Amino acid sequence: MTVRVLVADDQAMIRNGLRRIIESHPGLTVVAEAADGVEAVEAARRLRPDVCLVDIRMPRLDGLEVTRLLAGPGVADPLRVVVVTTFDLDEYVYGALRGGAVGFVLKDAGPALLIEAVLSAHAGDALISPAVTLRLLRHLTAAAPGRAPANPLSERETEVTRAVARGRTNQEAADELFISVSTVKGHMSAIQAKLGLRNRVEVAAWAWEHGLMD
Question: In order of start, what are the domains of the chain with their CATH numbers?
Fold first, then answer.
């Protein structure tokens, strides 16, 4: 089965580069490109790609608004959006997360991580570049000092949440905690249900915001 991808970036050179990377994987194909946010939303709604790869900074509508319109709360049939960002734009990523993004990839992260992010999004999972996880979510912790409400999670669920907040994959979390991947997935489902969150990206943000991390 081929995963259909939309690429939205205002720079033609970046779009071409992303297309080449994506289509180097035999299971991925780019079905549309967009040079601005309005084009991205129109193409995504028309074509219903499996994954939308969206730049943060675009004309007419920026990536935050595109994400909200395609994947945000209240969208009847949300699409899966992976946001592309750079270090100096980290402050915008939290807005994209709240808008429904299921992944964050730095533009200089390399082809392998980009492909992994697209495949993870298509599989219903989420991937955050570890550098973004630590840099962004530590910033969130510093911005909200003293927030430490009662933790509704069990001890094991808390351990899984901390692993996710450090950017660990399900396999890496399983290896660290000496449990199976299926057990990690079961805990993640329970964590999301308890916290009322939609994916591991929101779980990671919750952990850092609410004082679970060092």
Answer: 3-128 (3.40.50.2300), 147-209 (1.10.10.10)
